[in-house]
Design goal:
About 35% of the residues lie in helices and about 20% in strands. The protein is an alpha+beta fold.
């Protein structure tokens, strides 16, 4: 089962973030995303032809985020959208970040 086929799980406060090996292994499945180990984030920028396509994509990402109850930070401009995932309840990266990133990749590809 690939990451995009999994569903996010609720993580109570105090749950540990992924360790370096887990993060490295999961990152292999979504290699277009930039992994910032210091800030414990995953980020990817998507480019579009125009504002309409950008907002259409943003709305689809919002739908995924609500379905998974895992919401990214979004930076939106005319023809670009930058998405950043992290898991605040673990103060770092969780599998949920990678699941949502994979689902966004499936949407875009």
């Amino acid at each position: 089962m690939g990451l995009a086929d999994k569903a996010c799980q609720s993580l109570p406060k105090g749950s540990p973030p992924l360790d370096k090996q887990q993060t490295t292994d999961l990152h292999k499945e979504i290699s277009d995303w930039a992994l910032n180990e210091a800030e414990q984030t995953l980020t990817r920028e998507f480019k579009f032809k125009n504002f309409y396509q950008t907002i259409e994509f943003v709305n689809a990402v919002a739908w995924i985020a609500n379905q998974q109850d895992h919401h990214p930070d979004l930076a939106v401009s005319y023809n670009r959208c930058q998405i950043t995932f992290t898991t605040h309840s673990v103060r770092g990266l969780s599998e949920n970040d990678f699941i949502c990133a994979a689902r966004v990749d499936a949407l875009f590809d």
